[in-house]
Amino acid sequence: MVKFEEMQNNDVYKNLLNGKWIESNSNKLIEVKAPHDGSFLGKIQAMTKEEVDEAFSNAKETFKTWKNSNLSERADILHKAAKILEDNAKFIAEILTKEVSKDYKSSYSEVVRTADFIRYTAEEAKRLRGETLYGDAFEGSAKNKMSIVTREPLGVVLSIAPFNYPINLSASKIAPALMAGNVVLFKPPTQGAISALYLIEAFRAAGIPNGVLNTVTGRGSEIGDYLITHKDVDMINFTGSSDVGRHIASIAGMVPMIMELGGKDAAIVLEDADLEDTAKNIVSGAFSYSGQRCTAVKRVLVLESVADRLAQLVSEELKKIKVGMPFDEGVTVTPLIDNKSADFVQGLIDDAIEKGAKLIIGNKREANLVYPTLFDNVTLDMRIAWEEPFGPVLPIIRVKTVEEAIEISNNSEYGLQSAVFTNNIDKAFSVAQSLEVGTVHINNKTQRGPDHFPFLGVKSSGMGTQGIRYSIEAMSRPKAIVVNFNTKF
Ligand code: NAP
Ligand code: G3H
After folding, report:
1. Is 31 a catalytic residue?
2. pTM over 0.90
């Protein structure tokens, strides 16, 4: 077991710089409290611009040696980090549960899934060494040319993670970036920073060389623009809201970027779907972690002929869901990350009621605990038809034809994922091919995993592709060395 005591002093969490946990000179501390009961969890530091500069220049310097390190050396460190995470899974899951109000079971599985992710990344990177191309494969080209294409790291990857998966979505940037030979400057979400810093300690304790992984804490609204526009950023890997993503893209300049942003994933239900199974998938897809998943089912588009039955089944499934505090056994819906988020969700609920949606269940709230809410007969003039709630509210929109479902789905500003439920494989493929999203799931809820599948959003849902191999490729570039043979002796 690793001793985590160096990371903090009197509940003040430090930042990792050049292999050491350091305290900021800013004297500006941000309190982190548990969203479910307001209990104090610790303080993180708002780093100064000078400290950010130091973290970048240290990373830049370290890149010169790390980029030339052996893949097997990098992989060994990642395997050790994965083991440390796994050995401390219960401890870290408890912190995660408190910090982001995620039910304990999901928190624990996030930590374990992340260890698996890191291991797979270590092995996958070994297979991605590049390729050799021959000139004679191209019409009219010389036989005496050969291109050796290697993959080169980009440099300093600025990784910024959101609150909802502070362990998994941090590691899903850091591990592929490191395996590709980059160094990482990591900015955790403010709410979620403590959990994320434990992940960083796992990498440090595993032997990551000094300066290869540095952290910067502080509010994105204060330090974010400075980080994004810093001269030493070679690549930005960001996960968060579409609004912040758009802002980052507008100020970043010519820096390569990956963005994983918001979504409004539709579950499209056709007449011949297995409605019992569909209802189960919809409920777990929409309400797990209180709907605070980018890939949550955020609207149902159902053919009128089966809408009554589906609404009834979804409502029956929903009644089985347990609402409570994150450590309660079997709980699914817990308090949201903060009151502001609960206010936003309540605003969507109020708007739907005002405009005549049929409330089947819910519209109950205690502070930031929003009870699961289901609406039927939602119409397209309602905000809930289009906006991402990031909370436990689900609209059912009835459609007359499959074409109408596709049209409504595609009219969204988002394009992360969709699900289609039908027992007709031809229809399933036809709908899947018509949807403007990164991924379509047939007969299952929308979801990110398994983590080696490509994961991407189109339109306001993002740019670039993640997924283990895709992430390594996105955070590296090809370099060609062309060998010209002299065929005459
Ligand atoms: P957010 O408010 O956009 O914050 C995301 C991260 O950006 C945080 O670390 C935040 O720091 C930082 N940040 C804020 N302003 C910044 C700026 N000007 N420059 C640089 N960084 C800045 O998102 P969130 O509320 O944490 O997460 C929820 C959203 O993320 C939802 O919309 C969800 O759909 C999306 N998401 C998408 C995916 C995906 O894979 N597509 C996955 C997970 C979440 P602070 O915490 O300090 O404010
Ligand atoms: O919030 C976005 C996460 O990437 C969702 O992951 O679908 O595995 O819960 P998940």
Report:
1. no
2. yes
